[in-house]
Please model this.
Amino acid sequence: MMRAVADWWDAVELWITQLPFPLQVVLAIVVVLPLCWGTSAGVDRLVDLAAAQLGRDRPNGS
Model:
């Protein structure tokens, strides 16, 4: 199973490296930008949840 995934990934890398540079940049933007946005949104949500949980433990006067 892992060998099949590795072979597939090698084929994808080879395909990307054979593209002209401007297309590589566009492809990277199309893939990496949403991935980074989703990761940052997830981290932001986790931090908000953790802050809300920690904030409940404190009395209102402090």
